[in-house]
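Q: Can someone sanity-check these two? First one:
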Amino acid sequence: QAQLVESGGGLVQPGGSLRLTCAASGLAFSTYAMGWFRQAPGKGREGVSGSSATSYGQTNYAPSVRGRFTISRDNAKNMVYLQMNNLNPEDTGVYYCAGEILGRGGLESKSYDYWGRGTQVTVSS
């Protein structure tokens, strides 16, 4: 019974930072890729960042967040993080944590098998 639970969202001013956390249970965490996706109202889910299964050692970022966001994972704790710096209003949305059995850690949502319920991030002055 896989479960992913996001936390760390909130309201932040432009230029500010947030760190999102995803706690995973019920899956072989180190063999899964973990990803972060976001969805603004009326929009589809956008791939933000992915971290491959540990044996592959790859990370991926959407061009819009590269250089501002950093994904990391702690396999001993079954946790994945998204550090978000220099936030702008276009980063606003519900952020979802996802797990991928295949283990590639790409940015295509249809490749992922398990999803959290999301956490709201609002960037506004």
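And here is the second, same format, sequence then tokens:
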Amino acid sequence: QVQLAESGGGLVQPGGSLRLSCAASGSIFGLSTMDWCRQAPGKQRELVATITRGGTTTYADSVKGRFTISRDNTKNTVYLQMNSLKPEDTAVYYCHLSLRIGASYDYWGQGTQVTVSS
């Protein structure tokens, strides 16, 4: 089965930057849409950014202009570059792989903690 390995989370001051990575096993990555989602304690999981297999990106209004999602299909990896971080960005961030090719496939990473605080 597909495994998603996330990395890059940590503690950063407001205004700082982090880059999250999510490496996927398997051969279906290049056909898949990849998402980054986040969830803070007591809140619903929020879709942060999406990138299609063709490279089209979309962002939540709350992160637009600050975050950039990208992918490297040769490395089976999706990235989330986070700049100008705010305390309200504090959450567990998850990557998600979605494939619709006859059957439907959905895989989630384990999550990585991002904390924005002085």
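A (reply): Looked at the second one. The mean pLDDT is 95. The two ends are 40 Å apart (CA to CA).
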